[in-house]
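REQUEST ID: PR-0412
SUBMITTED BY: lab tech R.K.
PRIORITY: routine
TASK: structure prediction, single protein chain
INPUT:
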Amino acid sequence: MNVESADVIRLIEQFLREHNLHSSLDILQRESGVSLNTVENVDDFKDDILKGRWDAVLTSVMQANLPPANLTDLYEHIILELAEAQDLVPARALLRQTEPMDILRSSDIDRYLRLEQLLSRTSFDPRHAYGDSANKEMRRGAIASDLVAQVRAAPPSRLLTLLNQSIRWQIEQGTLSANDRAHDLFYGRAQKIRQPKAVDSAPDKLLATIKLPKKQHPSSVAFSPNGGYLATGSSDGFIELWNFRTGKLASDLKYQNEGAPMMMDDSVTALAFSSSGDLVCSGATSGKIKVWKVKNGSSFKRFSAAHSQSVASVCFSNDDAQILS
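STATUS: complete
OUTPUT:
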């Protein structure tokens, strides 16, 4: 079996995207000519379209190599919905400053001018915009079907998963020792681990006290692997990351500063960080499980029917590719 160089590039591109290295990802895609052409979750991607979460949709399609006709239909519909909501500034920006609309202007000037005229009107007529035989929801459904047929979702953390599988295979073949506690993947040799000289002692100093609002109490807690954050899950569904040394919310997370923390629909009964510290998994009394990106607070994965009852505990596998609950 031969490994295609394009597949190796896609593995690296997925790693860059999952670790929020978007500039490096853009450069690699541009220089290699190889597009990742995946979305993180096809069902979530379709749901974002059907519910009109256009910021999330546009972020997803930026990483997918979609046909120009599909992109034109998508951008045209977003412009129509923005016009309906009287958000004319972003609507004009999409129409006049994006590549799909430049292509439309070159290929179908009448269709382009129809959008320009629509944005110049003081009132919005849905029948004129969407047609007599369609409405906004029907258009969303048609676009969702077309785009879902063009994209795929790859399992997460494929590069790390394959590297871990390779190491396990080498251990089984005897080319690596199972007694090596750490392996330098780049140099291909075992790492020397220095044993700490200090002896652990019982804690005897209070660093800080975290106070939650009245009628709210923590139902789960977890430390990040590097000790940078303490995560708390509360009875009302909030998931917050704290500086445990000061007892205050972590100030380096923009979404928390803006009052938009991660949140479940029910009491959070279980929390766990990935080994990289980039993800945090939460379980609730409803049986739902979600995986969040720590850096931006977005929901990375959703398992709506993980359990029929409350989730008691969660944890990541060593390669962060699976979750045990």
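NOTES: Residues 34 and 64 are 11 Å apart (CA to CA).
REVIEWED BY: pending
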